[in-house]
Amino acid sequence: MLLHEYLHALGQFSELKVRWMVYEIARKCFGDGHIATEIAKKSPWALLKGIPLELGDINGSRQVIEIVKDFEQTDDYIV
Fold it and tell me: pLDDT tens string for the chain (79 positions)?
């Protein structure tokens, strides 16, 4: 994910190009069967497949995972 965001920070590549580049780099560095390559190929959301969006903590209370849309959208860039 850091590589993906780093490539975006350069501001030169489209989302599709960044995804392809991250996949190719992961494949070359880690190989086809590595989890980093699979995540690059399928997206990090593949890790959440089958996990319920409502989870209970160890005390039995229920907490809901909140998906925050447009989290990274800002007018200011912070390095």
Answer: 778 888 888 888 888 898 899 999 999 999 998 988 988 998 777 777 777 666 555 555 556 667 777 766 666 655 5
Residue at 33 is within a domain: yes
Q: Which domain holds residue 31?
A: 2-51
Q: What is the pTM of this model?
A: 0.55
Kindly state the tokens that stand for 68.
Answer: 């925050």
Report the number of distinct structural domains present in the chain: 1
Helical residues (DSSP H) of the chain, grouped into ranges: 2-10, 15-30, 35-42
- Tell me whether residue 22 is in a domain: yes
